[in-house]
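Justification of resources, computational component.

The compute hours requested in this renewal are based largely on the per-chain cost of generating structure records like the one below. Each record pairs the submitted sequence with a full structure-token output. That output is archived, and it is also reused by downstream analysis tasks.
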Amino acid sequence: MDGFVKDVMTPGVVAVRPDASVVEAAQLMRTQNIGDVVVADGQRIVGVLTDRDITVRAVAVAADPLGLSAGDVCTPNPLTLAPDDPVSSAVALMREHAIRRIPVVEGGLPVGLVSLGDLAEARDPGSALAGISRAEPDENS
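The structure output for this chain reads:
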């Protein structure tokens, strides 16, 4: 796959502080219609929090989501990419580490996120995964 990460990434990120409650992060995900947020301490990315993280690490163990912070539940120390990294680097990292999204950082600041869906859209726009990635969220969810 040719090109650069900046050509396939979703620009912009939504971030929360590590001390934000899981409820606050989940509400932000809902209002923004996204499935993940970057957890940042100032300008430093300390983790990525996904809807799956909330489900598996909070809800499934019956933890109080108001008592848990984003920093408690997120996947810490995420791998990152630069906008000018080749797309093949994103593919290799996702494959090697079995991850679905990687924050894109430029000058120490998060500028986007590259996801498995982004890669599917770039490589095979007609694929089922690309179609799912482009679909509008269900208004009832």
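DSSP finds seven helices and seven strands in the chain. Residues 5-134 form a domain with the CBS-domain fold (CATH 3.10.580.10).
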